[in-house]
Amino acid sequence: MNTFLDLLVVLAVAALLATPALYGATREHRLNRQLRTAAQNARVPGTTKRPRPGNRPARPVSPWAGTLSGKRLGSPRT
Fold it and tell me: Which residues 6+ apart lie within 8 Å of 66 measured at CB?
């Protein structure tokens, strides 16, 4: 009976010592997998889908923009 209890104590101590190492190894594996996936899905520089701020087309401004009455500002264009 003493031998069995000694074996259980040794296994418990081994489990207590191995648990943090196993937890760290699984966490490291998960991070490596996420980094690998991110690297595969990374875009090549210069191929963004959004237009750059300087390349936007100018919006036409209405000649009566900013007035309350809707009448044109300044002299009429001819």
Answer: 73
Q: What is the DSSP string of 13-46?
A: HHHHHHHHHHHHHHHHHHHHHHHHHHHHTPPPTT
- pLDDT tens-place string over residues 20-51: 999 999 999 999 999 988 888 876 565 556 65
Q: Which residues have C-beta within 8 Å of that of residue 19, sequence separation ≥ 6?
A: none
**H/E segment holding residue 67:** none
Position 28, amino acid: E
b/e for 39-66, b at 16 or more Cβ within 10 A? eeeeeeeeeeeeeeeeeeeeeeeeeeee
Mean pLDDT of the chain: 77
